[in-house]
Write a structure and sequence with these properties.
42% helix, 16 strands, globular, Aldehyde Dehydrogenase, Chain A, domain 1, 16 helices, alpha/beta, 7-stranded mixed beta sheet, Aldehyde Dehydrogenase, Chain A, domain 2, 6-stranded parallel beta sheet
Length: 447
């Protein structure tokens, strides 16, 4: 194991690491501006050097850019936060301070997630204790090597401890939980439930990003415009390809409004072209045998379940398009498998959402109709409603909540002395002086 990621075997190792991290986090100020500057250099270093083979690396480069993160910081914590200063709020001052040590439990199927998660808490000045799933050790090591290259003084590295151990080691899981002041938890239902049940201190703040599904929807006006159709198909393909369709924000189903526009064949032809082009640009480098089996089973089941169903796919399990109709949401296959369902009414689809839908990618011709659809989707639990092609644009809020603010303490300071004094303070002093003079004639004479 590398020096960047340590294989731990005892709870004591975790406790000692957390103690060292807490000392750094609480004894050394780290301004968000300094973090942004280092992140910008880190983003530039993630070009080449073997990192291009990591799924999601292009996305991570964009995420770490100052232009992405600075607006998020200012929205969540105010403009004064960039310099680590206090901001005025009436008679008080507010400033964000770190929680201390933030533990990270990333999902095991998104290669960039350990880094993505820790970046959020570093922006709050925290130290990070990260459990790296065994399947992500190699990718995480490559990404962290690039940080080490641009952080020679260890300004950020001294705040990061990456550990790896088998998820079945309950004693090590509990040791992590007992020694953190905040936790960012990602993953499927079982994994999230297991981590949430750990013995965290009562003050630990939890940010949970559990399993969600995402869908896309197009109205008949949009998909039936020949001049725009292929461009929309390219956007759909890009959303499907990123993260190999394993992210919560990956579209699993495209709901296509039938309307009165007739034959859907031209659209499906261009969608297949877009999938082929995306596959040539970003070919699959490897695939797990279980995913291959799932894709083959999904293709066969779809065609056998209904004679009206259609399917198009590559000879290998690279990509799959399944065409049918109805508003029933099929079980996701992932692995670049997109189900296209023809529906008469997009509002009827949205009425079936149950709170498990994270992102809805839209391509709607009418602004009024899109606003109504967005309102209906938001009421049914959808947290992100975006243009197709931007379903993976990672911004705050995410899953309906802030990314940085939950992992900081916003301290309120009302000064005990105010030399200038507010108008209210001056009025209170005058009234007090008058009352004191009324009760003390000698005081009035001396005045």
């Amino acid at each position: 194991m590398s020096d960047l990621i340590q294989a731990v075997i005892s709870p004591e190792e975790i406790a000692r690491a957390a103690m060292r991290l807490r000392e750094v986090a609480l004894d050394k100020d780290l301004s968000p501006r300094s973090v942004l500057e280092l992140f910008e250099r880190w983003a530039a270093a993630l070009s080449g050097n073997g990192t291009e083979v990591i799924p999601g690396a292009p996305f991570l480069r964009l995420w770490l850019r100052r232009g992405t993160l600075e607006p998020i910081l200012e929205r969540e914590l105010g403009q004064a936060v960039l310099n680590g200063g206090w901001r005025e709020e009436g008679q008080a001052k507010l400033r964000a301070f770190p929680l201390g040590v933030v533990g990270h439990w990333p999902a095991g199927n998104i290669e960039i997630q350990p880094v993505l998660s820790l970046s959020c808490s570093l922006l709050g000045g925290n130290a990070c204790l990260v459990r790296v799933p065994s399947d992500l050790v190699e990718a995480t090591h490559l990404l962290m090597e690039r940080l080490r290259a641009v952080d020679p003084t260890g300004m950020l590295l001294e705040r990061i401890k990456l550990v790896t151990f088998d998820h079945s080691r309950e004693d090590l899981q509990m040791a992590m939980a007992r020694n953190v002041d905040g936790a960012m938890i990602w993953g499927g239902d079982e994994a999230v439930s297991r981590v949430r049940a750990l013995p965290f201190p009562h003050w630990t703040r939890l940010a949970v990003f559990g399993p969600r599904l995402s869908f896309a929807a197009m109205d008949a006006e949009t998909w039936n415009k020949p001049s725009e159709r292929f461009s929309w198909c390219q956007r759909i393909a890009r959303d499907v390809w990123q993260f190999d369709q394993q992210a919560c924000s990956s579209p699993q189903v495209l709901f296509l409004e039938r309307g009165g526009c007739g034959d859907v064949s031209p659209f499906m032809d261009e969608l297949r072209q877009a999938f082929r082009a995306e596959n040539q640009a970003h070919p699959r480098r490897e695939i797990h045998p279980s995913l291959t089996s799932a894709i083959c089973l999904a293709r066969a089941s779809w065609l056998l379940d209904n004679v009206a169903n259609k399917a198009w796919f590559s000879q290998s399990p690279d990509w799959t398009i399944l065409l049918g109709e109805g508003t029933n949401i099929p079980k996701p296959t992932q692995g670049r498998t997109l189900t296209v369902l023809l529906v008469d009414d997009l509002f009827q689809v949205i009425s079936k959402f149950d709170g498990a839908v994270q992102t809805l990618g839209l391509a709607i011709g009418s602004a009024e109709k899109e606003e109504a659809l967005a309102h209906a989707a938001a009421r049914r639990g959808v947290d992100r409603i975006v243009k197709l092609g931007r379903m993976h644009v990672f911004a705050s809020p995410w899953d309906g909540m802030d990314l940085i603010r939950p992992m900081v303490r916003v301290v309120r300071h009302v000064p005990s002395q105010d030399n200038a004094g507010s108008a209210r303070d001056r009025r209170e002093r005058i009234v007090s002086d008058i009352k004191r003079g009324e009760n003390d004639p000698e005081s009035c004479k001396s005045a």
